[in-house]
Amino acid sequence: MQNLDSKIIRPTLLLDKAKCIANIETMQAKAKRSNTRLRPHFKTHQSAEIGEWFKERGVEAIAVSSMQMAEYFANNGWKDITVAIAVNVREIDLINELASKIQLNLVVESQETIAFLQSELKHAVDVFIKVDTGYQRSGMPAEATGSIRLLINLMDESDKLNCKGFLAHTGHNYQASDQKEIYKNHSKTLLDLNELKDVFRKEIPGLEVSLGDTPACSISDEFYGIDEIRPGNFVFYDIMQYVLGSCNEDQIAVVMACPVIARNIDRNELVIHGGGVHFSKEYLEADDEGTKLFGSIVRITKNGWSEIIGGGYLASLSQEHGIIRCSDELFDEFVIGDLIGILPVHSCMTANLMGRFMTTEGEWIETMNSKQ
Amino acid sequence: MQNLDSKIIRPTLLLDKAKCIANIETMQAKAKRSNTRLRPHFKTHQSAEIGEWFKERGVEAIAVSSMQMAEYFANNGWKDITVAIAVNVREIDLINELASKIQLNLVVESQETIAFLQSELKHAVDVFIKVDTGYQRSGMPAEATGSIRLLINLMDESDKLNCKGFLAHTGHNYQASDQKEIYKNHSKTLLDLNELKDVFRKEIPGLEVSLGDTPACSISDEFYGIDEIRPGNFVFYDIMQYVLGSCNEDQIAVVMACPVIARNIDRNELVIHGGGVHFSKEYLEADDEGTKLFGSIVRITKNGWSEIIGGGYLASLSQEHGIIRCSDELFDEFVIGDLIGILPVHSCMTANLMGRFMTTEGEWIETMNSKQ
């Protein structure tokens, strides 16, 4: 086994393939136990190669967060893709191109979009109605069955839009203050989707309901009536999910390895090369005084990383610099040129920015964001 | 003139070339008036093509924020590049490669790094000592003349490290609460750099001092004793700089154009395709209650954009979605499929994420972050 330390030159997102695959298998096993389909959301890794790890384990259907991401995965052999964001009508050419090649599933929430698609689509697509079960980002309110029926009626008259069912995202689970709140939000989503199913079952043959969010899919074992789950972040997890209780520390499958470039002994601060262009600027509030935490510290080992080290945290980020605030002991442990590991707050944002990952075996994994 | 609206399919960073060039010329004129050199920081645009706009106006020396950015601009004809971040010793191979080709200027702040470079450099480089004038991110405290002298003595003994002078970044200006605070911070940096110049003038022939930050370089006309200024963000400006008073609204040279994908009439919210992977998640606090503002709203016109529209702002971002909170009037103005313009909070982060820009003439400008 080669020493990882010798392979890392600059800020690098390390990926522990074994942990990642264990996360995939755990979620796949839970879906099977719960008689629901795992349609993993690929927005977190955005990588054809990591997609193969799912495919090898029987996954055939995926969700993505943009039409361009759908195009990338369609070009990499995926035949059943849900674009889990309301249709951007300006992308009609790409929609038509993809709909001619694969089973493309779209998401709508307005009469205007349905009318546009009916007019402009060249191929039939399956369509989910986005419903809002409390996140208040987008979607028809789940209780607005009258308005929802109008959308369904419009699609009934259409020869191109096949209404497939309802899709919800319990996104407010990411802001939950404790697990109880996640259970509560999740229960509301389950209730809402099952009620919609009851109301529209007769009108929509083969009606399906789809829900997705890593916190509930990780924490709950209850998915009655749910046809598919669409978690994404679980493939890597991160500090936000660890704090929410979605994962154990050792399920976090990615860590940023950053070189120490300066040390400030007066403030017990290590300066790393690693900033907002690597991590993103997402943070957690570490206490009631609003102390910002941009990541937790680990040691990079020969072939992976240690448990979280107490006594320090990533306290601030500018474009390329990060500041690690340290105890005396932690400060003394690191010299200039050393690597320090940082578990990211939000792996989706960090992975998107980094564009490629190095496995703990030292191999590069490319994504749709790999640079020229 | 073609209509911009017909060219934009998905979230697009629009660049007004005329405004951008005016920003360059204004800063260049100020540098000339102040008898200082403009060494623009290219971390904001990261684009060889935009670099040419500077070159055509007589700029020959630049700053960058990473060694890879130095490599990119060296490959695009730049011969005098300061990498304005403490040396990452792991990049020694790239440092040696670049030092063999161009005038490479490095930044150090520790004896360890100097000793490493003396041992490993294959070519002579100019070196600036990073000094901290109050930002408390990195650098030797400006008043620590004893410790600074130790670094200079080490370089005196070196045949490869030519100590060129001192480099400071008044980064705390980005957090200033008003212009008075920016003037105060800037004055402290001027005082510190001039004092260092007085102390070490005899020991370092041709000693130079370099300072950089867009707020002070935009607001102040006072640069006595300063050999060069290194502002970066001024090339585009953004809402953060507008709020700080660094620029007028019509100097902001970039805007995100995002399609409206949904409308929520109950909450007067427009949902756009445009999220954290486009804007970054930087925000400003819009009031004392901590209301987050992720961008200000403009109308996209045939060949540019309007003034800021009252009655709405970009209120939240997830990975691909943005939520615009609206007055009744603003809400009624936009339908699904329309473009809405958003002046970004921090153009450096947004430009870095977007990777390419469309000019208001409809031409694409590539950067070192353009994707495959």
UniProtKB/TrEMBL annotation, chains A, B:
Pfam name, any one: D-ser_dehydrat
Keywords of this entry: Lyase
The keyword Lyase appears for this protein: yes
GO BP terms: D-serine catabolic process
The keyword Ribosomal protein is annotated on this UniProt entry: no
Annotated ranges, domain D-serine dehydratase-like: 253-361
Coiled-coil intervals, chain numbering: none
GO molecular function terms noted in the UniProt entry: D-serine ammonia-lyase activity
SUPFAM superfamilies reported for this sequence: PLP-binding barrel
Gene3D superfamilies xref list: Alanine racemase (3.20.20.10), D-serine dehydratase-like domain (2.40.37.20)
Annotated PANTHER family: D-SERINE DEHYDRATASE (PTHR28004:SF2), ZGC:162816-RELATED (PTHR28004)
Family of this protein: Belongs to the DSD1 family.
Name of this protein: Alanine racemase
